[in-house]
Amino acid sequence: MKIDWRRNNTLTNFFFNCSSCDLESKTVIEDFLDKKLQKILNIKSEKLNDAIEKGIIKFFEFHTRPALQFRKGIGRIEDGTTIYFRDKIEIIRGFPKIRRTLLLSPTLKNHFEDEIVVEEKMNGYNVRIASIGDEIVALTRRGYMCPYTTKKAVEILDLSPFFNDNPDLVICGEMVGTENPYVSHYYEEIGNLGFRVFDLRKKISNEPLPIKDKQKILNKYGLPGVRVFGTFKVNEAPEKIKEIIKQVGENKREGVVMKDPEMEIPPLKYTSSRAHDDEIGYAFTYPFDFGRDFFFSRVIREGFQAYEMKESEKELQKRAQRLGESILNPMIKTIKNVASGNQATEDMTIDIENEEEAEEFLRYLHNLGVYAVIHKIEGNKAIIRRIHQSTTDKITNLLNGGLY
Ligand code: ATP
Ligand code: MG
């Protein structure tokens, strides 16, 4: 079936509204959508049509040229996949979801083959960096080009030599540190803001390079990779990882990602008790803004980890106490805060050169539907304040005698 792009008018509407798109590129895009995209991505034309009609595939204008964003996964194509129409058509696939294991044994033995590479799981936000024509862009998980991330990625990393030699690779990594507008976490070796690469993947196919090849390339171009704890035989891995995860937690770090050395088997993630409690603490700081599923899944993680660690009564008691404290303490703090007339807010610091940069970042957040304001600008730091409205309203209502 040929896709009738004109019938649902998406493309025509897009060009109608796109002041700087030339009509020549319309023909290129039509041709690409009709003839090539289905083949490259291996999705049926009916599915594509349907996705366009539902707005799952969305056209947008990027630096005066048309682009396409997959707002949800379709078939094997991950959500966050972005296509740029330049002299060359560039396809940057979304970063695949990593499944979680609750138990190390027997899951690792079932899932992996001979050996497992254990990498550190860094707690920040996922970024894909790619070269598009003569530009370098940094995309967040859902495929948005974040202006702050793009600027910082280029500042932190020396990317040109890498992309000159490897224009068809995408750098996948985590933006970490405290001056982080999405997930602020302190790492002593990083401080304000840093980047750690965990995968190199091919454009179009999303195929990851084997771990050894990745490490060779990272070394060659001086790009910082995530920490590697070691490579273990599947049989010995559970015991080793138990020890690693205890250390990771004690150092207030998040967890591990376990990978097949060839990257032919999908990786798995496993996290520390400390990370679970931190996230529960965050959720209960804004109890009416975070879903119950969020809470439930983290408690389940604790249950299975405690079981597998064969903890003594004393250790178990400690775990239970920490869990309880991370539920109650943050919530009580927020109730007190709202009771004294404040809103439930969350501050994030970003590093800026001028006020306009903070405003640009805020416009970007507003476009994503995130409600935030610039709270303060002090020198080259801007404090962006997010307001958690449901939590503020619900607590206010309850404090005024409302019923639950
Ligand atoms: P998802 O489960 O869909 O990946 P999530 O937001 O729940 O999304 P996390 O629980 O943080 O994600 O776990 C997956 C993420 O971990 C990856 O998307 C990546 O950003 C991050 N990550 C950190 N370190 C690594 C690593 N060494 N290898 C792979 N991913 C890593
Ligand atoms: Mg994460």
List keywords for this structure.
404 residues; Nuclear Transport Factor 2, Chain: A; D-amino Acid Aminotransferase, Chain A, domain 1; five-stranded mixed sheet; 41% helix
- What count of helical segments does DSSP give? 14
The CATH homologous superfamily name of the largest domain equals DNA ligase/mRNA capping enzyme
Major β-sheet strand ordering: 5-13-12-6-11
| Low-confidence residue ranges | 5-9
CATH fold group of the largest domain: D-amino Acid Aminotransferase, Chain A, domain 1
On the 0 to 100 scale, the average pLDDT is 93
Record field, number of beta strands: 16
Largest sheet: 5 strands, mixed
CATH class of the largest domain equals Alpha Beta
Q: What's the shape?
A: globular
Strand content: 15-25%
The computed structural class is alpha+beta
The CATH architecture name of the largest domain reads 2-Layer Sandwich
Bin the helical content.
40-55%
Q: Which ligands does the model contain, each kind named once?
A: adenosine-5'-triphosphate, magnesium ion
Secondary-structure element order, N to C: HHHHEEEEEHEEEHHEEHEHEEHHHEHEEH
- CA(first)-CA(last) distance: 54 Å
User: How many individual domains?
Assistant: 4
- Give the radius of gyration: 23 Å
